[in-house]
Each structure stands twice: as structure tokens, then as C-alpha cells.
Design brief:
Layout lengths: L2 H14 L8 H4 L6 H6 L1 E5 L14 H7 L3 H10 L20 H10 L4 E7 L26 H12 L3 E7 L6 H8 L6 H18 L3 E5 L7 H4 L1 H10 L8 E2 L31 E6 L19 H13 L2 E7 L9 H17 L20 E6 L2 E6 L7 E4 L2 E3 L5 E3 L8 E2 L6 E4 L12 E5 L2 E3 L8
Parallel strand pairs: 1-2, 1-7, 2-3, 3-4, 4-5, 6-7
Antiparallel strand pairs: 8-9, 9-15, 10-14, 11-16, 12-15, 13-14
Helix pairs in contact: 4-5, 6-7, 6-13, 8-9
Length: about 450
């Protein structure tokens, strides 16, 4: 028996005997990602916090106003708020009087989402649950006087099969403990042990989220400062969600795009190629902000053509799509965001077979026609076509069909006519528009499909 086989058998035996993960990246990286996450493909991000009150510019409002002192933020405050107004004065105005978590859950279900990620705490430090580590700076002690996170978790679990997850910022812009650690060049490590890590334990034990979406780790030199590896080891070994939870890669600059169940690497990450590790494209319907902005105009809002394009590119290359909305301070998902979510649900209701539980194919995009992206599932190959072809005939350069193959457009009952000359591209005749139910992008399902070349295609 070879040494490699022996090592593999020992690893399998250790796994079967319930071996524990050590707080090292080498050990943590051996944990298999829970299958539900790769099959889910589509989730919804929700950025909601005190920044939703001024609802101007960006969710980084406090930092841009007080620390960076960007001119437009300073002028906004001077024109609209009394002298000596502080960021804490926004808390009583975070009212959430129209917040209906049941309605939110129904919208997310209608959108076809398989998981959601709510900002439990952004860099401002305000927690959306009654954290005992954020006294008087949380949604129960001030503002709406309500456990906003807990109420949504209950509605999601009572009304849907959607997985509930949380975003959590490791750092806080103006927390005195963090600023003292920063002043010491992070030789002092008071903040994580007093604030960040206890909050994470509290979140997991109280609400049992199945996604921990960490952020803000680059504010310190490494994951060692944050205590990330010890927390993740507990999460994988002993937490109430140890068998189902997934985490991202934002646990320190050394972890970014290198360690974690899935990589996010950077906001709106969309590499356009198949990656060897599971990844996620977090992006937002408002192209300029994650939090709600009152000054947004229609041109800032991504269209369904934009969103289905991003969906096709992401899923074809092995990623998940996490699409963000920003609710208002009073708890509304505004109509334009709701419309996009319901439109995505409409599209997935027809074409979800090519998305959910799919796998990347040998080619991610077509070699001949731009705007065609591939997935595979249950022996079928799917071509996601972003643009209706000229003359109603699509040419595909990456696919070869068997003589008895059938091609369908999802949402249409009858098979499509196709032809393929020897050593030539596949020609597929699109149906009459009166037979088409899908909008924005169209999906062809092909059985008996094989790639023209064994070489995987890249952009």
C-alpha cells in the first residue's frame, strides 16, 4: 500500500471517528463544505442598520462624515441637522415601525432565495439583537426597542425552508478598545476578547445561523489578532450548527481568498472563470450602495438583464450569488427592490433547473457566441442565453449533440429543432415568441451533449 493511500485511509478513519478540527488553517481547511450551500446557489444579503436613517451616500456614512470628512457628507449634515448632532442621535430615529418580518420572509421566498444573510452588526457597532456586549447600542435598548434579528430568524424558519445567516463585522470604527489596540500597533489585543468574539459566540448560541459572513478583518494585520481560528474551530467542533454552518474568508488579511468554506475575495467578486474552491459573488441591486439611499435614481438600479447576466456568469463558474437589498429606517423593502426580487423569483421559477444543484460544465461560456453560459445537472447540459439570437437561430461552438439528442427551452413544451453539420457549430432554432414564458434570459436544456473539445473554456 502506498504512503498516499495510507494517509488517505488514516484521514478517513479519523473523520469517521469524529476527529476534531484544530485551530490552524491547515486543519480547518480539511473540513468539507456542507452540501446545502453549493446546491443553494442563490441568497439574499440585507444591509440594515443606523446608516439607514440618514440613508445618504453609503453605509459607511459615519466614517465618511466623521473620520474621512468627505465634503458631501459634511455638507449634508450641516444643511440638514442641528449643530453638534452626533451619530448616536440617529438611534432614536431608527424606528422600524413598518418592519414586518413575515412579509420579508414571503418576499424572499418569492424571490427563490435559498438562504439570507442579515447584517447583525456593521462597522458602526450597533447590534440588531440585544447583545449584552453592546449595552445601550443595540436595537432593543434604543431605536425600535425590538430584536430585529431574532424576529426575522423566527419568520424565516416558520414560513420558509430558507437558511438563516448573519453578517458580522469584526471591527468597529470608533470603539475605544479597538482604537487603543490600533494605537499599540495591535500588540495589545483587548478588543476581540472583550467584544468581537463574545458577540459571535452569543449570536451562534442564541440564533443558530447557518451562515457566518464575517467582514472588516483587514482592519488588523492578521487573523491571529482577531482570534478567528479558535472561534472557527469551536464553530466546526462544538457549536449548535457545527454540521451545517458555512463561513466565508474574511477572518484576517491572511485568510482572504485563501481560507474559509467559501471565498468572497472582494465585493462584487466575479472572476469569470472556474475556480478550484467554492466562492460567492456578493453584489447589490443598487449599483452604488449596500445600504438604502434616498438619493438613488432609477439608473442606479440594476435591471433584470444585468441581474440574470450576473447570475449566469456566477453559477456557470461555480459560485453562489448573494444579491443585496437595503431596507429603510422604518423597515420597508422599497418597491423597486421588491420588484427585482420577485422578478428574479419569476425567472428562477422557470429556469431554476439550470441553477439550483447544478454543477459547472467543461466549458463555462460558449466558444462562438457571446453571452451564453453553461451549467450541468442530472446528465443534461444547460445553455443560459442572455441575448435573443438574430434570425431566431442560435449557434453554439462548444457543444456536440448525439443524433437522438433533444433540445428544449425551459418553459416551453415542445422540443426545438436543431442541426449540426460535421465539424461545424450547433444550430438551434428558437421558438415563436408566443410560446416563450421566460423573460430576460432563456435556458436551453440539452440531453446527449458533449463538449467539442476536452479542453475547458476560459474567458
Amino acid at each position: 500500500m502506498s504512503a498516499a493511500v495510507t494517509a488517505a485511509l488514516l484521514l478517513l478513519a479519523a473523520s469517521l471517528c469524529g476527529a476534531r478540527y484544530e485551530p490552524t488553517w491547515d486543519s480547518l481547511d480539511t473540513r468539507p463544505i456542507p452540501g446545502w450551500y453549493d446546491e443553494a446557489k442563490f441568497g439574499i444579503f440585507i444591509h440594515w442598520g443606523l446608516y439607514s436613517v440618514p440613508s445618504f451616500g453609503d453605509e459607511w456614512f459615519w466614517d465618511f462624515w466623521q473620520e474621512q470628512k468627505y465634503e458631501q457628507y459634511v455638507e449634508f449634515m450641516e444643511k440638514n441637522y442641528r449643530p453638534n448632532f452626533t451619530y448616536a442621535d440617529f438611534a432614536p430615529q431608527f424606528t422600524a415601525e413598518f418592519y414586518d418580518p413575515d412579509q420579508w420572509a414571503d418576499i424572499f421566498k418569492a424571490a427563490g432565495a435559498q438562504y439570507i444573510v442579515l447584517t447583525s452588526k456593521h462597522h458602526e457597532g450597533f447590534t440588531m439583537w440585544p447583545s449584552k456586549y453592546a449595552w445601550n447600542w443595540n436595537a432593543v435598548d434604543t431605536g425600535p426597542n425590538r430584536d430585529l434579528l431574532g424576529d426575522l430568524a423566527k419568520s424565516i424558519r416558520n414560513r420558509t425552508d430558507i437558511k438563516f445567516g448573519v453578517y458580522h463585522s469584526l471591527f468597529e470604527w470608533f470603539n475605544p478598545l479597538f482604537l487603543a489596540d490600533k494605537e499599540s500597533n495591535f500588540t495589545q489585543k483587548a478588543f476581540p476578547g472583550a467584544k468581537t468574539i463574545p458577540e459571535l459566540y452569543e449570536l451562534v448560541n442564541e440564533y443558530q445561523p447557518e451562515v457566518i459572513w464575517s467582514d472588516g478583518s483587514i482592519a488588523a494585520p492578521s487573523s491571529d489578532y482577531w482570534g478567528s481560528k479558535d472561534f472557527i474551530a469551536w464553530l466546526y467542533n462544538d457549536s449548535p450548527v457545527k454540521d451545517t454552518v458555512v463561513t466565508n474568508d474574511r477572518w484576517g488579511p491572511d485568510a482572504s481568498c485563501a481560507h474559509g468554506d467559501f471565498f468572497t475575495c472582494q465585493d462584487r467578486y466575479n472572476p469569470g472563470v472556474l475556480l478550484p474552491h467554492k466562492w460567492e459573488n456578493c453584489m447589490t441591486i443598487d449599483s452604488k450602495s449596500w445600504g438604502y439611499r434616498r438619493e438613488a435614481v432609477l439608473a442606479d438600479i440594476l435591471s433584470m438583464d444585468d441581474l440574470t447576466k450576473t447570475m449566469a456568469e456566477t453559477i456557470s463558474c461555480g459560485g453562489n450569488l448573494l444579491m443585496n437589498v437595503g431596507p429603510t429606517h422604518d423597515g420597508r423593502i422599497v418597491p423597486i427592490f421588491e420588484e427585482r426580487l420577485r422578478q428574479m423569483g419569476e425567472w428562477l421559477g422557470i429556469n431554476g433547473e439550470a441553477i439550483y444543484s447544478s454543477k459547472p460544465w467543461s466549458h463555462q461560456n460558449d466558444t462562438l457566441t457571446a453571452g451564453v453560459w453553461y451549467t450541468q445537472r442530472d446528465g443534461a447540459v444547460f445553455a443560459i442565453v442572455l441575448d435573443w439570437p438574430e434570425s431566431d437561430t442560435l449557434q453554439l461552438g462548444a457543444v456536440t449533440l448525439a443524433a437522438d439528442s433533444k433540445v428544449f427551452m425551459l418553459g416551453c413544451q415542445d422540443p426545438l429543432k436543431w442541426s449540426q453539420p460535421a465539424d461545424g457549430p450547433l444550430h438551434v432554432a428558437f421558438p415563436d415568441l408566443t410560446q416563450v414564458t421566460s423573460r430576460w434570459a432563456w435556458v436551453l436544456k440539452m440531453d446527449g451533449a458533449t463538449p467539442v473539445s476536452d479542453e475547458e473554456n476560459r474567458l
